From TrEMBL:
Pfam families: Fe_hyd_lg_C (PF02906), Fe_hyd_SSU (PF02256), Fer2_4 (PF13510), Fer4_7 (PF12838), NADH-G_4Fe-4S_3 (PF10588)
Segments forming domain 4Fe-4S ferredoxin-type: 136-166, 179-208
Upper classification of the organism: Bacteria, Bacillati, Bacillota, Clostridia, Peptostreptococcales
Nucleus in keyword set: no
Name of the protein described by the UniProt record: Hydrogenase, Fe-only
Keyword Translocase included in the entry's annotation: yes
Source superkingdom: Bacteria
Domain (4Fe-4S His(Cys)3-ligated-type): residue spans on this chain: 78-117
Keyword terms, alphabetized: 2Fe-2S, 4Fe-4S, Iron, Iron-sulfur, Membrane, Metal-binding, NAD, Oxidoreductase, Repeat, Translocase
Length: 568
């Protein structure tokens, strides 16, 4: 153990502890800006500097370890003044027009500047605005970048993708798309983790809110909106709502107030995905010798993009089932258009997702299989729907809860847990067990696949057949798993991959509050536990859509509408 004094408090911590962590253990908060625990500990911004007695220079608290007998001052006049100058210099290179910034109110630079009492900009502002493809789902504004390197590190060290790199040196240092590429030429998976880890407004999603407002104002359009599983666990965070108050039914009430004609639940089509993907898997298993394994889930478009660019020779291992978002779009513009007795082109289909990659998925040419132009017309993120709610001045806290519309508003607990890592696998196993044995398992029988670990394994016996499964989230974890499969170190029958750590709950379109993913995941499992229906095959709307329209899972019609070959 190491003994030291921080701000007059005697502290005893383990050897190797960083000054920042030692201070936190003593209840002292040192401000940080570029720091991200275990991801970016480079001390670049110099906001966390502290004074160590006997040291001429101030030291960064995030990447210097404690030493026996140290006497540290975290907020002395010298520290305060240095921090202030450091932040003023950062501001001199940052476009400080906060009023029009997407991160205003949730910006770490804004908070630190305010906390340090900076109420004027003493240096001339010099910032660069570089051209960017505004049609791409991920938008970068170079004039907001503070070169903290968080995006570079998250992309490389968590997502194994290396889209960003440092260009130039000295005062011209910049973050650029690597290998001199344009973003649209790069292999960006569109997971959006760089956005959620950016402390400022340098990275954001393409804003599609106006398209939705235009559709709502167009009397010729019937607006049909779907709400993804993980959105319900997070939408209240940026509206200041307590988790208990931010129910999905309250979100439904807000959407109805905004004027959406039909408000449905993506958990319905998550259940539909289970019917198709579960049946596809069971069919493959029946003829094991003639099929290649493992079968990979295909519902995460970030993962599908990653596989296409990094492992193109393995694309045929992806399940052909479309994602719930796209199944929903296809059902909306076929079955539901028929129920409404309108042409599919009259329907404008909107999807609220925790995800950036979904904005790309709905534009993949071969994903659209109905008579309409596009099965899903526009995708907005959880952050964008929150902005719409604010723009409409809806007092969500005082809204009465309302129900989804019918029949596509019914989902099971199995569909809800799609938004958590392991959830798709667990939901699939619940129904696969039923499809093989004709009996339901205990709904909690496959709990092993829950939890935030990056790579989880389980073996499950169904009617004498042992099924080996794995679940992974985060693309670096995924890469390790694929390498192990390719090297013959592991063998699985069924693998779930989600690009974002923790699954969609930690998606790149979610409100930006780092450290919230596991709370969101817990919330989804709680909703599953409390649900009346916990098996996808028991969803009455699913039973009906097969009876009245699709016939059976994997039928010709189901194939046409609900499956894809992942070719483009
Ligand atoms: Fe997901 Fe999905 S679970 S990818 O994370 O499968 O975005 O929430 O909507 O489509 O259902 C995202 C979340 C979805 C889809 C579902 C799947
Ligand atoms: Fe999108 Fe979810 Fe995949 Fe992340 S894990 S890229 S949020 S689908």
């Amino acid at each position: 153990m190491v003994r030291l004094t921080i701000d007059g408090i005697a502290v005893e911590v383990q050897e190797g502890t960083k000054i920042l962590d030692a201070a936190a253990q003593a209840g002292i908060k040192i401000p940080t800006l570029c720091f991200l625990k275990d991801i970016n500990e480079i001390g670049a911004c110099r906001v966390c500097v502290v004074e160590v007695e006997g040291c001429d220079q101030l030291v960064a608290a995030c990447n210097n370890v404690v030493e026996e007998g140290m006497v540290i001052h975290t907020n002395s006049p010298k520290v305060r003044e240095t921090r202030r100058v450091n932040v003023e210099l950062i501001l001199s290179q940052h476009d400080c027009r906060c009023a029009t910034c997407v991160r205003s109110g949730n910006c770490e630079l804004q908070t630190i500047s305010n906390d340090l009492g900076i109420i004027d900009l003493p240096y001339n502002q010099k910032f660069k605005k570089k051209p960017w493809n505004k049609d791409f789902p991920l938008i970068r504004d170079s004039s907001k970048c503070i070169k903290c390197m968080r995006c570079v590190q998250v992309c490389e060290n968590v997502q194994n993708t290396r889209i960003w790199e440092v260009g130039n040196t000295g005062s011209r240092t910049d973050v650029v798309v690597s290998l001199n590429r344009k973003i649209e030429e790069s292999d960006c998976a569109l997971c959006g983790q760089c956005i959620t880890h950016c402390p400022v407004g340098a990275l954001r999603e393409r804003d599609d809110v106006d398209k939705v407002f235009d559709a709502l104002a167009d009397p010729e359009k019937i607006t049909v909106v779907q709400v993804a599983p993980a959105v319900r666990a997070a939408w209240g965070e940026s509206l200041g709502l307590e988790r208990e108050a931010a129910t999905v039914k309250r979100l439904v009430a807000a959407l109805r107030k905004m004027g959406f004609n039909y408000i449905f639940d993506t958990t319905f089509s998550a259940d539909l995905t289970i019917m198709e993907e579960g049946s596809e898997f069971v069919e493959k298993l029946k003829n094991k010798e003639n099929n290649k394994f493992p079968m990979f889930t295909s519902c995460c478009p970030g993962w599908v993009r990653y596989m296409k660019s990094h492992y193109p020779d393995m694309v045929d291992l992806l399940s052909t089932s479309k994602s719930p978002q796209q199944m929903f779009g296809a059902i909306t513009k076929s079955y539901y258009a028929e129920l409404l007795d309108v042409s599919p082109d009259k329907i404008y289909s909107i999807s609220i997702m925790p995800c950036i990659a979904k904005k790309h998925e709905c534009d993949i040419p071969t994903i659209n299989d109905t008579e309409a132009d596009k099965d899903v017309d526009v995708v907005i993120t959880t952050r964008e729907v929150d902005r719409m709610i604010r723009a409409e001045h809806i007092d969500v806290a005082n809204l009465e809860e309302e129900e989804f519309d019918m029949p596509l508003g019914v989902g099971t607990g199995a569909g809800v847990i799609f938004g958590a890592t392991g959830g798709v696998m667990e939901a699939a196993l619940r129904s696969a067990y039923y499809l093989v044995t004709g009996e339901n398992p205990d709904p909690d029988a496959f709990k092993e696949v829950r939890g935030m670990d990056g790579w989880k394994e389980s073996q499950i016996e169904i009617n004498g057949t042992v099924v080996k499964t794995a679940v992974t989230s985060g693309l670096k974890n995924t890469d390790k798993l694929i390498q192990a499969i390719r090297n013959g170190e592991v063998e699985y029958d069924f693998v779930e991959v989600m690009a974002c750590p923790g699954g969609c709950s930690g998606g790149g379109g979610q409100p930006i509050h780092l450290g919230q993913t596991s709370n969101r995941v817990d919330n989804l499992y709680k909703l599953d536990k409390e649900a009346n229906l916990r098996f996808s095959h028991e969803n009455p709307s699913i039973v009906k859509v097969y009876e009245d329209y699709l016939g059976a899972p994997m039928s010709e019609k189901a194939h046409k509408l609900l499956h894809t070959d992942h070719e483009s």
